[in-house]
């Protein structure tokens, strides 16, 4: 019987372990935490966005900016339909929401974790709470692992599914990168993805906690001198910059981050053209001609944005609206339609939803997830240099690569 060790009991590791055992292998699952799938518990704000009913394999790949083509075989083997069937067969009712996002009907991530637990338990996967610190390699082939406690476990194959660097309290502390490097692999420098962004402008801190709904954003690359991303939806001001759904999605496109390279332009009133917005401002002014602009502008903008926007236009809040010139009004409209923020960096990687970077896909066989450098060594999930947009795509990467790695290792 083929003996397999899976390192890491997250989304990818549990699926890999259960799949390998289901295929007839003897499987040992080593996890440093006493509970499985700690990160799954907090995904989707505790609701767990399981996958995305986005369409076929090509459509799924188009939502993976980080080495999506590498996943063609994995998605062909196990796509979103398979994920839905997988969890429904394990007793989890699912539902589809806006943007084709799939969640458990209960809105509880614990139902997904419990299902993964049932999957490995029913398939008789053996589990131990151990932290793996070293691979046992002999003559170019993996022979097992050594743990922090000093124990050695031997196997025919090892699957590394230890996650990335985001949310380290869940166990994602980069252990898999060290193991991969020990086996000769190149690790592409890990960086945040689906991350909040640190911005230069003080107005972010002034507006901290303000959530904007139904705004549009454009991201401009000042080095390439072109617009690289647009989106519409909700965002949030923080003490250090911006966050929220449209910002997290935008961050996945900032592949070459450097200080002040990227600029974000926020359209606070996307439903109105500049001309229509000017008409709206004129109407507000004419109906409140005796008032100051600082008292009238809250009719158009959230109160906390009023002073920062006025400061950008050079208009004093004490200025009577009857004294506002056409040029001043044009400047105001332009600022509301394109509020500029300068991106300095990603927020800390420990706070990112996903880690980009990881084990180079050039050194992994995409048809099996096996290392091209070390026989019997496989990779699955976030430890690989693949990352997708928000919306369930990253969990689908974990499930698909886990399934393929587990099956490949078991049947070799």
Written overview of the protein:
The structure is a single chain. With 412 residues, the chain is α+β, with helices and mostly antiparallel strands. It has 2 domains: 3-192 and 355-411, FAD/NAD(P)-binding domain; 196-346, Orthogonal Bundle (Helicase, Ruva Protein, domain 3), CATH 1.10.8.50. It has helices spanning 11-22, 57-62, 72-77, 80-89, 109-122, 175-182, 203-206, 245-251, 274-287, 293-296, 303-313, 326-337, 393-411; strands at 3-7, 26-31, 51-52, 94-97, 101-104, 126-129, 132-138, 141-147, 152-154, 157-160, 187-193, 197-199, 211-221, 226-237, 241-243, 262-267, 339-346, 354-359, 377-379. Strand 13 (211-221) and strand 14 (226-237) form a beta hairpin. Helix 1 packs parallel to helix 5 (109-122) and helix 11 (303-313) crosses helix 12 (326-337). It is elongated and about 85 Å long. The N and C termini lie close together (11 Å).
């Amino acid at each position: 019987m083929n003996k397999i060790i899976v390192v890491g009991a997250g989304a990818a590791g549990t699926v890999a372990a259960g799949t390998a055992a289901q295929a007839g292998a003897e499987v040992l699952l080593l996890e440093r935490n006493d509970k499985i799938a700690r990160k799954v518990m907090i995904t989707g704000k505790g609701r767990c966005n399981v996958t995305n009913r986005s369409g076929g394999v090509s459509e799924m790949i188009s939502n993976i900016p980080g080495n999506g083509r590498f996943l063609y075989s994995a998605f062909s083997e196990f796509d979103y339909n398979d994920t839905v069937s997988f969890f429904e067969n394990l007793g989890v009712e699912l539902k589809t929401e806006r943007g084709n996002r799939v969640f458990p009907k209960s809105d509880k991530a614990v139902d997904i974790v419990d299902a993964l637990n049932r999957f490995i338990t029913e398939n008789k996967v053996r589990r131990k709470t151990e932290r793996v610190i070293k691979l046992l390699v002999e003559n170019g082939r993996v022979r097992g692992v050594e743990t922090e406690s000093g124990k050695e476990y031997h196997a025919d194959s090892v699957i590394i599914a230890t996650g990335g660097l985001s949310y380290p309290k869940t166990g994602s502390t980069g252990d898999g990168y060290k193991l991969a490097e020990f086996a000769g692999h190149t690790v592409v420098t890990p960086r945040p993805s689906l991350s909040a962004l640190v911005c230069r402008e003080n107005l972010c801190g002034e507006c901290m906690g303000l959530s904007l709904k139904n705004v549009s954003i454009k991201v401009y690359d000042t080095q390439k001198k072109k617009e690289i991303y647009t989106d519409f939806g909700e965002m949030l001001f923080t003490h250090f910059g911006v966050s929220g759904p449209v910002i997290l999605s935008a961050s996945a496109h900032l592949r070459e981050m450097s200080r002040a390279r990227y600029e974000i332009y926020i359209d606070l009133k996307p439903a109105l053209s500049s001309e229509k917005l000017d008409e709206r401002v004129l109407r507000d002014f004419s109906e409140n001609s005796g008032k100051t602009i600082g008292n009238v502008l809250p009719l158009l903008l959230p109160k906390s944005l009023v002073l920062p926007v006025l400061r950008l236009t050079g208009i004093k809040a004490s200025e009577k609206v009857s004294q506002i010139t056409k040029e001043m009004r044009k400047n105001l409209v332009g600022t509301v339609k394109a509020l500029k923020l300068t991106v300095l960096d990603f927020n800390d990687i420990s706070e990112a939803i996903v880690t980009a970077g990881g084990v180079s896909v050039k050194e992994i066989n995409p048809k099996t997830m096996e290392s091209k450098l070390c026989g019997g060594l496989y990779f699955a999930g976030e430890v690989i240099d693949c990352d997708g947009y928000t919306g369930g795509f990253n969990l689908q990467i974990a499930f698909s690569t886990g399934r393929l790695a587990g099956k490949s290792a078991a049947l070799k």
